[in-house]
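Catalogue entry: protein

Sequence with per-residue tokens
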Amino acid sequence: MPKMKTKRAAAKRFSLTATGKVKYKKMNLRHILTKKSSKRKRNLRKPGYLATGPVHEIKKKLLPYG
């Protein structure tokens, strides 16, 4: 059986933590930042973690060797 290919789009968006959670960068921090509050922008800088539901799909189908 040949090796499975990692979906490169998913590899660029998601990363796995040591405990197996899926980490991603939050959206809405690229442009039109003047109307967003400082608190909102500060919270968007923090990483987001996927809920436990789709974690299995991400790890199995998109990041098979993660």
